[in-house]
Amino acid sequence: METKANYVLIGAFTLATAVFLLLFGLWAAKYSSERDWQEYRVVFTEPVTGLTEGSSVQYNGIAVGTVERLDLDREDPRRVIARLKIKASTPIKVDTKAKLSITGLTGVPFIQLTGGSPNAAWLARSSRDEMPIIATEASALQNIADTANRLVARMDGVLSEENVQRI
């Protein structure tokens, strides 16, 4: 006795169910991983030499995320916009500051987050499309470069042609 089973239909149903379960698993994994991370922007008004996509983001010396993307600001090319991906559990407050730092003396640049007083409000999105912006402060490297530029300018004044002739 032969049954009238439609093997093509059973096979198609099995394959469709397997594909649906695979896609559902991928969607669930993506949804879960997005809840574990928060995205922020940092706008630098100084050069970010050596900082690359994938560079570390540290909060008080502890690695909490990475630099996802670096772009020049379209309206002001002197500004660099860094998009950060940071663990959602990191306490990013409205008074948290970001600055460019370097590991050791000749190490790799990274973004250092500091501050964030306990009583300050959490830094949150103002709208669904807008990423929160972490304020910046001048890095030690920028301060050293500014001081060096002022010293060179003063030395140029001291060693002007008029002063050299007097000596």
Blueprint of the fold:
Layout: H1 7-35, E1 37-44, E2 56-59, E3 62-72, E4 80-87, E5 96-102, E6 109-115, E7 133-136, H2 140-158, H3 161-166
Parallel strand pairs: 1-7, 2-6, 5-7
Antiparallel strand pairs: 1-4, 2-3, 3-4, 5-6
Summarize the structure.
This protein has 167 residues and is α/β, with parallel strands linked by helices.
Shape: elongated
Give the strand line-up of the largest sheet. Answer: 1-4-3-2-6-5-7
Strand-residue proportion: 25-35%
Largest sheet: 7 strands, mixed, barrel
Order of helices and strands: HEEEEEEEHH
- Mean pLDDT metric: 84
SSE-based structural type: alpha/beta
Number of strands: 7
Task: Summarize the amount of helix as a percent range.
Answer: 25-40%
- Extract low-pLDDT stretches: none
Radius of gyration from CA coordinates: 27 Å
Tally of DSSP helical segments: 3
Question: What would you note in describing this structure?
Answer:
With 167 residues, this protein is an alpha/beta fold. The chain is 32% helix and 29% strand. The protein has a 7-stranded mixed β-barrel. The chain is elongated, with a radius of gyration of 27 Å. The mean pLDDT is 84.
What keywords describe this structure?
alpha/beta, 167 residues, 7-stranded mixed β-barrel, 7 strands, 3 helices
